[in-house]
Amino acid sequence: MSQQSNSKYLKYVVIAAAIAGLVVLAKQFDFQLLFQNALAWVESLGAWGPIAFIAIYNLATVLFLPGSLLTLGGGAIFGLVQGSIFVFVAATLGATFAFLIGRYLARDAIAKKIDGNQKFKAIDEAIAKEGLKIVFLTRLSPVFPFNLLNYALGLTSVSLKDYVLGSLGMLPGTILYVYLGSLAGDLAMLGQETATVDPATANLQLAAKVIGLLATLGVTVYVTKVAKKALDNSVGDSALS
């Protein structure tokens, strides 16, 4: 192995270790208290609050920290309309940062490993062609962990454009959580059981669950279909060669 390759490998190891260290350190804190203090600080910033909120949300996303409390907090601080906009922008930016980290830290290594395996290569290329639909469906489904999915998709050949556009699938869940946060209206109430069980809220929650279930079924069937087609094509090409 050349000195240049060793240097490049060492750089990746150091960056990966630093990220892992930050994740482990972050997990030592009380998330609810940490986020509530951060949200209280955001609320005190006035016009600068949205920028600080987006920055905090981005950091939480990259560090694998759960963003549900921050989403609720966005509703409590900014209200339904502005809160939905700020949370969606923050979640999309944070997800994109994680995607790029996953792609440029590990994608090259993964590509080299699958280069000799035509089946995996075919599936990877097929997913790239259908990337927008797959990303959109996985974003709709609550089954796929948001933070993990950001990095995992970075290891595929999905284009950055399709990845970002597919983030529109987050909108239903985002609006629901922001709405619930706006009903709380008080940062101290976040993360606690609240009496927001009016018919309209109950119907909204049910609708979100139905959308999530349908998206889960849809993405499972769709990805299976794409993978099968890629495998069939791969086998056919191998038989002809």
The computed structural class is mainly alpha
Mean pLDDT: 74
**Oligomeric composition of the shown chains:** single chain
Classify the helix fraction into a percent range. over 70%
Span between termini: 33 Å
Residue stretches low in confidence (pLDDT < 50, at least 5 long) are none
Description:
It is a single chain. The protein is mainly alpha-helical and 241 residues long. The protein has one domain. The protein is 80% helix and 0% strand. The protein has helices at residues 3-26, 31-44, 49-62, 68-78, 80-114, 118-129, 131-140, 146-154, 160-166, 171-184, 199-240. α6 packs across α11 (199-240). The mean pLDDT is 74.
List key phrases describing it.
241 residues, mainly alpha, globular
